[in-house]
């Protein structure tokens, strides 16, 4: 253990990180659920949405790239607070540029701040979640990601309600942005200050800690785990950014049903993530990942090919179930060895999150040539590849993950 915490202090730390995961999911679903409304308000096409997503993705990669520096200089505690404030400002500007001062440039600036903040936050909160998992000695990262999914459920549900009520994008995003700021400040008080990835005997200089944090990029297993996470990250990111539009336009369900389908997807993910830890402890990571990969492929294909909306919603649910544990189990596998957990989690999160954010914009560009639903076949193929590569998540010998 790198920290000596009382049971109550560990519990409040867990609650704070649960809240941070929830806030991240809430912010992403808020944006995702209003994509059709933003598209209509600005009078833009799918290709332009794809370019906006690409801009957000580039900013997110920058956030991922500097997350290790943020952690080394500030620690995950202050780092998470800072980037949550940044993403809240970005969300506010997205609404401002849609309704109050209609401007594609302003929306792009908002998405850049939003993407940077969420990119850095994803690494930092997973590093803290992995550290807590080491402290408690059992699989709980799926539960942290369940709270992320809970945030997306809340965000998508609110999005469906406000879209159905024809409430503007700005009042919606402004309220959510303020809520995230409040949550960030409250959570800050309960996260312990600790060095990024530094075991008890680690060097004290931040440059040494940064070097240790980047060491995982020299390990082949990092990249093999990246293959496992790649397909699932594409599946989750693609659903978040394109499912609502696919139902709304391609399946002709309308804006409200588009947001409702995203809600179904998010609920399915949340349910599996809540019960994911015990399932993994019983059946093992590899078997769990393979079964869920098959489920996700079936769900995506049903979503694409379904002849009616009820079957589309069944496909969305299966898609959510199948995509639920790829990312958290990749994090858990990266954190098998407590001494190197933070560095490996940071590297693995970066690979997954690059796919999570860069995949949807690429799909958007492709969709202009072959159609959105046809483009989703690419996700199905990547999920299948993730299932075939899932043996990489096998626990390392002699670590706490062996029993998983």
From TrEMBL:
Signal peptide: none
The Major facilitator superfamily (MFS) profile domain, residue ranges: 13-398
InterPro entries reported for this sequence: MFS, MFS_dom, MFS_trans_sf, MFS_Transporter
UniProt-annotated location(s): Cell membrane
Membrane topology according to the record: Multi-pass membrane protein
Keywords associated with the record: Membrane, Transmembrane, Transmembrane helix
Membrane-spanning residues: 12-32, 52-72, 79-98, 104-127, 139-163, 169-191, 223-243, 255-275, 347-366, 372-393
Top-level taxon of origin: Bacteria
Listed SUPFAM superfamilies: MFS general substrate transporter
Record keyword Nucleotide-binding present: no
PANTHER family, per the entry: BYPASS OF STOP CODON PROTEIN 6 (PTHR23514), INNER MEMBRANE PROTEIN YBJJ (PTHR23514:SF13)
Name listed for the protein in its UniProt record: MFS transporter
């Amino acid at each position: 253990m790198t920290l000596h915490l009382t049971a109550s202090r560990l519990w409040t730390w867990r609650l704070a990180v649960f809240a941070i995961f929830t806030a991240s999911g809430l912010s992403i679903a808020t944006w995702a659920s209003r994509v059709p409304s933003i598209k209509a308000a600005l009078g833009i096409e799918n290709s332009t949405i794809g370019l906006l997503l690409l801009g957000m993705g580039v900013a997110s990669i920058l956030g991922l790239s500097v997350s290790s520096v943020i952690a080394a200089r500030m620690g995950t505690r202050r780092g998470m607070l800072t980037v949550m404030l940044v993403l809240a400002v970005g969300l506010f500007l997205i609404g401002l540029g849609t309704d109050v001062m209609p401007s594609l440039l302003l929306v792009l600036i908002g998405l850049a701040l939003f993407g940077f903040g969420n990119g850095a936050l994803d690494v930092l909160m997973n590093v803290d979640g992995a550290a807590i998992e080491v402290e408690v000695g059992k699989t709980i990262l799926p539960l942290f990601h369940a709270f992320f999914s809970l945030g997306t459920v809340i965000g998508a549900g609110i999005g469906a309600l406000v879209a159905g009520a024809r409430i503007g994008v700005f009042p919606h995003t402004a309220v959510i942005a303020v809520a995230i700021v409040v949550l960030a400040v409250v959570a800050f008080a309960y996260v312990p200050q600790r060095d990024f990835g530094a075991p008890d005997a680690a060097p004290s200089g931040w440059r040494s800690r940064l070097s240790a944090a980047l060491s995982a990029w020299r390990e082949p297993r990092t990249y093999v785990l990246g293959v496992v996470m790649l397909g699932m990250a594409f599946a989750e990111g693609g659903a978040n950014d394109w499912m609502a539009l696919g139902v709304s336009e391609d399946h002709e369900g309308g804006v409200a049903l588009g947001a409702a389908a995203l809600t179904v997807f998010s609920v399915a993910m949340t349910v599996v993530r809540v019960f994911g830890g015990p399932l993994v402890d019983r059946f093992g990571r590899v078997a769990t990942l393979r079964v869920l990969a098959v489920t996700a492929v079936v769900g995506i294909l049903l979503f694409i090919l379904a002849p009616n909306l009820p079957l589309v919603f069944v496909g969305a649910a299966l898609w959510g179930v199948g995509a639920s544990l790829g990312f958290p189990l990749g994090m858990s596998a990266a954190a098998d060895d407590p001494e190197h957990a933070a560095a490996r989690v940071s590297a693995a999160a970066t690979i997954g999150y690059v796919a999570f954010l860069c995949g949807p914009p690429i799909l958007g560009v492709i969709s202009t040539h072959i159609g959105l639903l046809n483009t989703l076949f690419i996700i199905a193929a990547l999920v299948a590849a993730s299932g075939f590569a899932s043996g990489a998540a096998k626990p390392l010998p002699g670590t706490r993950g062996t029993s998983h």
